[in-house]
Amino acid sequence: VEISSLGDKDILVLRLDLTDRSSHEAATNSVLKHFGKIDVLVNNGGRSQRSLFVDTNLDVYNAIIELNYLGTISLTKHVLNHMIQRRKGKIVTVSSVMGIMGAPLATGYCASKHALQGFFNSLRTELTDYPEISIINICPGPVQSQIIQNVFTENLAKSLESSGDQSHKMPTARCVRLTLVSTVNDLKEAWISDHPYLAVCYLWQYAPTWAWWLMNRMGKRRIQNFKSGV
């Protein structure tokens, strides 16, 4: 058994609300005061969605963008200022395969992940004078987590009635390991998924006409299952 050499001074836990953007500078400064530097920022906060657009209140879309997109880039801004001073660091953002493709019942979630992809791919081009600052986008497919239990639905007050079976999804530990491998190797983008979702990513990237045809067929069945409560 490997014994960790970490002590109390090596660990700092801060409560953070991504939607409270006014608190992000102070949180960043607290970390810097404790450790003296920030080597890696992992943006891993967000909520998914499970609802049809025609049934969904626009307040839900506002909340998704506030949390998944604006909250993430707000925290990134404060940490990046420090990394630019050091001329070194890694910013890892957990996007999603939904940032690459479109899918039914997740229009707002897909939009927020597309926004993150566009933002960080553009930010990378602004940091060419800082070759040791890496911008890394992680795009997982279905992973075992509590994300389903906490999804947005048709309105902000409603929670999902059934989260369904998660046994077919990638184990959390495997996704974490592949994320760490991607981070260590400074991959600009990593798709972390099992098939058939990974195959659909390739279709969406290289044969979009086939991807649209397939998603229309898959989407119709997924919507039927959703309406049936499956």
Give a structural overview:
InterPro entries: NAD(P)-bd_dom_sf, Sc_DH/Rdtase_CS, SDR_fam, SDR_family_member_7. Keywords: Oxidoreductase. It is a single chain. This protein has one domain: NAD(P)-binding Rossmann-like Domain (Rossmann fold, 3-Layer(aba) Sandwich), CATH 3.40.50. Helix content is 45%, strand content 10%. It has six helices and four strands, in the order H-E-H-E-H-E-H-E-H-H. It has helices at residues 24-35, 58-86, 107-126, 172-184, 197-206, 208-227, and strands at 40-43, 89-94, 133-140, 189-192. Strands 1-2-3-4 form a four-stranded parallel sheet, sandwiched between helices. The termini are far apart.
Write the layout of secondary structure elements.
Elements lengths: L23 H12 L4 E4 L14 H29 L2 E6 L12 H20 L6 E8 L31 H13 L4 E4 L4 H10 L1 H20 L3
Parallel strand pairs: 1-2, 2-3, 3-4
Helix pairs in contact: 2-3, 5-6
Family: Belongs to the short-chain dehydrogenases/reductases (SDR) family.
Protein name: DHRS7 reductase
Keywords: Oxidoreductase
List keywords for this structure.
single chain, 230 residues, alpha/beta, Rossmann fold, 4-stranded parallel beta sheet, 6 helices, 4 strands, globular, oxidoreductase, SDR_fam
The CATH superfamily is identified as NAD(P)-binding Rossmann-like Domain
What CATH architecture do you see? 3-Layer(aba) Sandwich
Principal-axis shape equals: globular
Span between termini: 42 Å
Helix content: 40-55%
Q: In which order are the strands of the major sheet placed?
A: 1-2-3-4
The fraction of residues in strands falls at: 5-15%
Summarize model confidence as the mean pLDDT. Answer: 94
Q: Which fold name fills CATH's third level, the topology?
A: Rossmann fold
Total strands: the figure is 4
Q: Structural class of the helices, strands and pairings?
A: alpha/beta
The major β-sheet equals: 4 strands, parallel
Which stretches of 5+ consecutive residues score pLDDT under 50?
Answer: none
Topology pattern, helix = H, strand = E: HEHEHEHEHH
Indicate the CATH class: Alpha Beta
Q: Radius of gyration in whole Å, from Cα? A: 19 Å
- Number of individual domains: 1
Number of helical elements: 6
